[in-house]
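Hi support team,

I've been running sequence recovery on a batch of backbones for a student project. Most finish fine, but this one hangs at about 90% for roughly twenty minutes before it completes. I'm not sure whether the input is malformed or the queue is just slow. I've pasted the structure tokens below so you can try to reproduce it. Let me know if you need the job ID as well.

Thanks,
M.K.
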């Protein structure tokens, strides 16, 4: 179990602002619900539980209760976050890509720019994975195989059409001018099962999701779609290093509904900034294989909206829903 730490915020140059518009007893008057739009045990759920456990000691009186509300690829839970009462007692954990991709595919009840962005925790890059004994050694080998015979190489994506796992494949196809036989799955466990059994030749899922199997010598990663190599997988080159300018992953963080009390938002931002500044937070994240990308407030919002522009441009060039 991760030990709770009580850090003096003043020593970090941070202070919790006095609340004026939220309930006077916030955050101690009642628990803060953390809505997770996905089932327990997934990447967003893990980040929600890790982050709130770390931050609770830095927000005196705060009690966080995680509520999983899966459905419609995260749409139901994100709508619940966006439309929650803006009283400081409901926040949510999201995968940023869904904020931008789902509105391209169907009507949703949120606007990306109107969420209250509190803190991003991780940015878990996508990877393309093969069995340890596969003849494919790198992305160049994969591209060459696809050029020779596109239908001879099946690529399974963990979260299906429109997910980051799918978009990384679309990005490689675009940069390399190839096409792959795409097999969408409903979860990482399912695509890993079929990769290990040989039912698919290549699988796309996030780096943190493959690190254990890679360390066990069962699978290899052809490339990680991150700006730089993740330290936990330093032996795996990035897509860019192999000549393909593709950067796609799952950024996971904490947001609130529009109209979230500004004082409460600033207090949460200060608590997250204090946690990020603590070396123990980084050590704990490394222990559970979380690739950190700590951002607070406006910087987090800017990242999500910039990601949305990239996604919309990709969708305009090659829509994945027809």
């Amino acid at each position: 179990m991760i030990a709770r730490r009580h850090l003096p915020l003043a020593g970090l140059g941070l202070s919790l602002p006095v609340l004026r518009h939220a309930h006077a007893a916030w955050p101690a008057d009642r628990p803060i619900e953390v809505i997770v739009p996905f089932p327990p045990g997934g990447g967003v759920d893990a980040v929600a539980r890790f982050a709130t456990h770390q931050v609770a000691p830095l927000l005196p009186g705060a009690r966080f209760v995680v509520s999983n509300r899966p459905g419609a690829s995260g749409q139901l839970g994100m709508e619940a976050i966006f439309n929650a009462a803006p009283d400081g007692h409901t926040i949510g954990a999201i995968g940023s890509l869904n904020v931008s991709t789902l509105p391209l595919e169907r009507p949703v009840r949120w606007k990306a720019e109107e969420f209250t962005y509190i803190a991003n925790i991780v940015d878990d890059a996508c990877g393309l994975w093969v069995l340890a004994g596969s003849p494919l050694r790198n992305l160049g080998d994969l591209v060459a195989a696809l050029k020779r015979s596109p239908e001879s190489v099946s690529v399974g994506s963990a979260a299906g059409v429109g997910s980051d796992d799918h978009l990384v494949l679309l990005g490689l196809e675009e940069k390399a001018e190839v096409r792959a036989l795409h097999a969408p799955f409903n979860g990482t466990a399912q695509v890993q099962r079929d990769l290990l059994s040989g039912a698919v030749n290549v699988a796309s899922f996030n780096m943190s999701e493959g690190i254990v199997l890679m360390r066990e010598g069962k699978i290899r990663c052809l490339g990680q779609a991150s700006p730089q190599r993740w330290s936990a997988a330093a032996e795996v080159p990035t897509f860019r290093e192999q000549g393909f300018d593709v950067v796609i992953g799952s950024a996971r963080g904490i947001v609130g509904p529009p109209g979230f009390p500004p004082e409460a938002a600033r207090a949460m931002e200060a608590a997250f900034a204090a946690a990020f500044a603590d070396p123990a937070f980084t050590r704990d994240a490394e222990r559970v294989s979380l690739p950190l990308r700590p951002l607070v407030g406006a910087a987090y919002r800017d990242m999500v909206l910039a990601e949305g522009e990239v996604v919309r441009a990709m969708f305009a060039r090659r829509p994945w829903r027809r």
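--
Follow-up from support: It reproduced on our side and the slowdown came from queue contention, not your input. Confidence is low (pLDDT under 50) at residues 1-22. No action needed from you.
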